[in-house]
Amino acid sequence: MLTQRRSGILLHPTSLPGTQPVGSLGQEAYDFIDFLLEAGQSVWQILPIGPTGYGNCPYSSFSAFAGNPLLINLQLLVETGDLYKSDLPTPPPQSSAADFGSAQKRQLPVLQLACERFKQSTAPSRQQLFDIFCSEQAYWLNDYAFFEAMRENQDCRGWQQWPQEIKQRDSEALHHWGNQLRDRIYWYKYLQFVFFDQWLALKKYANDKGVKVFGDLPIFVAEDSADVWANRELFYLDDENQATHVAGVPPDYFSKTGQRWGNPLYRWEQMEENNFSWWQARFHWNFQLFDLLRVDHFRGFSACWAIPATETTAENGFWIEAPGEKLFSLLQQKLGILPIIAEDLGIITPEVEKLREQFGFPGMKILQFAFDSGPDNPYLPPNHRQNSVIYTGTHDNNTSLGWWNSLDTEEKQRVRRYLQNPCKKMPWPLIETALASIANLAIIPLQDILSLPATSRMNTPGIAAGNWQWRFQPGTLTADIAGQLKKSSQLCGRDLCIPTEM
Question: Is it the case that residue 46 has pLDDT exceeding 70?
Answer without folding.
Answer: yes
